[in-house]
UniProtKB/TrEMBL annotation:
Source species of the chain: Paraphotobacterium marinum
Protein name, as recorded: LysR family transcriptional regulator
GO molecular function: DNA-binding transcription factor activity; sequence-specific DNA binding
Span of domain HTH lysR-type: 1-59
Family label: Belongs to the LysR transcriptional regulatory family.
Record flagged with keyword DNA-binding: yes
Amino acid sequence: MKMLDDINLFRFIVDSGSVLAASEKLNIPHKTLSRRIQILEDTINIRLFHRSPRKLILTEAGKKLYSTCSPLINKLTYHTEYIVNETKSSQGTLKICCPQILINFGFHQYLSKFLSLEPHINLLVEATTDADSVNTLEWDAVIMEGPLRSSSNIARKIGAFSYILVASPEYLQNKPPINTPLDLECHDLLKSKSFLNWDLSSKNQEQYKVKNEPRLLMSELTGVKSSCLDALGIALLPSWAVKLEVKNGHLEQILPHWCCDTKELFLIYGHREHQPQKLVQFIDFIKSCTLFST
């Protein structure tokens, strides 16, 4: 790297016409520049200048080094400045990895909003059902459920949620009342293969395991939610996934003092220093995202 710096100084001296002129432009002492050129000549074992009291004259080897290296250094400088400017501006592509369940339950709508706010940023999003297989170093940012594996990356908590019991008002209208978890035995349950065990906990630390077989068993929670909205039974779903439906009355929360499997969500990214501006914008957006707020 030091030799590359010295070659760049050599190029600058040639462009300036003399060591003295280059010294004034670079604000580097004349003797320092002369010594650096001497070191370069000793390193490559080639004389670059014919030295005279009045001026420096390039040797044949010096002319070849200048004509060969000068365009390369200019190109290197251009691309370095381009990369620096791109990193400092809100543009380029961000690689994001997140759980498949987020995409299934509408997280893509928030990603669309981010893109509308940042027209010069592109997103490459991959959804995964196997968090353990995700190599966080391959992504600009990863959204992951806790608890987290040990990592040298930054992990920012972006939300916490529980799985809650919900049903449509139409289903509950002509069904027996539900006052305790035991009452669930008289109702139709809608389950997914990924979440078969309903181990409920109360705010008073009571435990209850729902044992009755489901009336409907599906491979994905999205289908369970749709069936729940169709008044087919009671479902256990992530609180953020039914937040809007509960708010607008399309679903009702059952046994609000009981829930299952409280989880935390984290946004994982590289070190705090030297972050690209596009990543800073995405982090700020996720922090303001209301999807996981309670």
